[in-house]
Amino acid sequence: MPVEKDPNPKITPHGFNNLTKSLSFNIFDISYAQTEQHRQEYIEYIDELYNAERLTEILTNVTRIIGANVLNIAREDYEPQGASVTMLIAEHEKLPEGGDWEAEEPGPMPDAIVGHLDKSHVTVHTYPESHPDGGISTFRVDVDVSTCGVISPLRALNYLIHSFDSDIVTIDYRVRGFTRDRNGTKHYIDHDINSIQNFFSEDTQNAYQMIDVNVYQENIFHTKMLLKDFDIDNYLFGSGRDQFSTEELEDIEGRLRKEMLEIFYSRNME
């Protein structure tokens, strides 16, 4: 019987794999803080929970998941609020045995894999904010993971989503540049990808409403996520639901949902 030819043979690069895979991951956590004191306490709480030390721990785990060694760390807690961490990372000497590093499938949680990277970095910045009108407080985290080599930073998605209280998530993934195979042919992507959603675990897929905006011919992929379940008890900071009337709770829920939808669709609503 004739042997079927693999329609997507793996690339054997001429030298190092020069493709750059860049992941930008933004999460938003929404809360309602009724008083000025509660709003200030919310900012202080977020600043303490996600200070530079905690963010360094999260990025260190991300680095281990995607298979790199940390070369250098720069971190800072800002005044009056916010923090940033930047890591330069380098490749492991070789891939571990077993596993399909180019497969379009959910990535693992920490301590599960190592891979092959070079000339890469991971960064995180936090943006806690609150506005005195309406009591809505919003916390944003930006994470960027840029890698070269065999595996994709998409492997870190599940860990990142579970590391933060994520009401809204926006994700951009792009493969840039090209690499040559041994025959000199240029390749502009080295792995299959139909949607970022395919890299999420089942529980993540079930927890969020998702929409895609992809430009396949440019190897650009974009996914937005909105948490499906809404329990107002999870959004009241410094207060319990027993401190509000039914009408007040309905008004607060309406404002929270409006805030979440505006961020999800990137436009203001009347």
Short description:
The chain contains five helices and eleven strands. The protein is of the alpha+beta class and 270 residues long.
Tally the beta strands: 11
CATH architecture: 4-Layer Sandwich
Q: Helix- and strand-based class? A: alpha+beta
Give the DSSP E fraction (strand runs of 2 or more residues). Answer: 25-35%
Uncertain ranges: 1-8, 93-105, 107-118
Largest sheet: 9 strands, mixed
Whole-Å distance between the termini?
A: 66 Å
Overall helicity:
10-25%
Query: Can you give the mean pLDDT?
Result: 81
The CATH superfamily appears as S-adenosylmethionine decarboxylase
Instruction: Specify Rg, calculated over alpha carbons.
Output: 21 Å
| Count of structural domains | 1
User: Tell me, what is the CATH class?
Assistant: Alpha Beta
Give helix and strand order, one letter per element, not per position.
EHHEEEEHEEEHEEEH
At the fold tier of CATH, the topology name is S-adenosylmethionine decarboxylase
**Per the principal axes of the C-alpha atoms, what is the gross shape?**
globular
Helical segment tally? 5
Give an account of the 3D structure.
Residues 1-8, 93-105 and 107-118 have low confidence and may be disordered. This protein has helices at 36-49, 52-66, 157-163, 202-207, 246-265, and strands spanning 20-33, 68-77, 83-91, 120-130, 136-148, 168-176, 179-180, 186-187, 208-212, 220-227, 236-237. 23% of the residues lie in helices and 31% in strands. With 270 residues, the protein is of the alpha+beta class. The chain has one domain (21-265): S-adenosylmethionine decarboxylase (4-Layer Sandwich). Strands 1, 2, 3, 4, 5, 6, 9, 10 and 11 form a 9-stranded mixed sheet that branches. The chain has a two-stranded antiparallel sheet with strand order 7-8.
